[in-house]
Amino acid sequence: MRPALDIADVFRAHGPAFRLAQAGHLSLGQLKVMSAIEACRTAELGGHVERCEDCAHLRIAYNSCRNRHCPKCQGAAAERWLKAREAELLPLAYYHVVFTLPTEVADIAFQNKAVVYDILFKAASETLLTIAADPKHLGARIGLVAVLHTWGSALTHHPHIHCIVPGGGLSLDGEQWISCRKGFFLPVRVLSRLFRRLFLERLKAAHLEGRLLFFGERAGLADGGVFAAAMARLRRIEWVVYAKPPFAGPRSVLAYLSRYTHRVAISGSRLVSLDERGVTFRYKDYRSDGPDRRKLMTLAAAEFLRRFLIHVLPAGFHRIRHYGLFANAARAANLAKARTLLKPTAPPSPAEDTAVADDFPCPCCGGRMRLVEVFERGAYPRLALTPIVMGIDSS
What we know:
alpha+beta; 5-stranded antiparallel beta sheet; 15 strands; 34% helix; 22% strand
């Protein structure tokens, strides 16, 4: 069922005024996201008409924008991605490890998204691969899927990496499978220290190569001495890396990934109202020690749009990446090898296809709906659509 309010409603109501107020300050990528969300599932993108074979009921379905930042378009994208990943699951426990940047580094990332987000991916993945390969810990080559999130629950800028890792890996000679201890993957403190060192080394290199830009309050960091002093302070604080308990099984991994891989900063399900005060939405207050962290926040519409748009990723930037055994080049061979070594346990069987069919049944009688007309962008259907039920075409 369509929520009473969604993100597109906010963009359509306040997007034009926001564009005018922010003229010259919005990137091309942000403008494209705004246009895509506003046009998603409207006549502007075209669509098709279906008629029920039994009762002749007509239904119109407008096309989706397919933009990766559009909340309404991510369900189908996640479904396709997960179906491809399902065949790659191994029959063992999986772990969830999160790497988070300190506020000072997050501020640098805000002004240098492509460079710093890439460093975040590389430092987090290298940390896991290095510590896992160390004979003092696991002594194995592992695989992992890393997903970038750039937001906190209140839409603030909070870049962090979610890593999903099977509980074990191939021995360094590739001849056996080495499992981690039950309920324990790798020591978090060791991961945190190495992550901090690797990240700061890469950030320093980017600064020396002139790949970082600084503006406003951070402009002073362009000076080598000021930057070095800031890096020294960052080496003295603890960086947050935490590992959650293992999933109940591979199926739980799929359920989890379906919520994380294609998530955007906020979905329509969290919106409460849109009125003269602004946009009210639900968020989770992680600073609260009380049992109920779920609260309501109201932001002026312009501030809501600003916060949403700071999470638009640079063009061509990949927010889901695979490393180690799961790296694309050798993934199939590594998975086959792992399954051979894990053969006492049967590999997971494919789950039933729960995807929604492309042709939704007739809402009146449950009959089969047949395509009777396709209309182009900006056009309207020629058929007299009475009554009309708004459908979805996410193809």
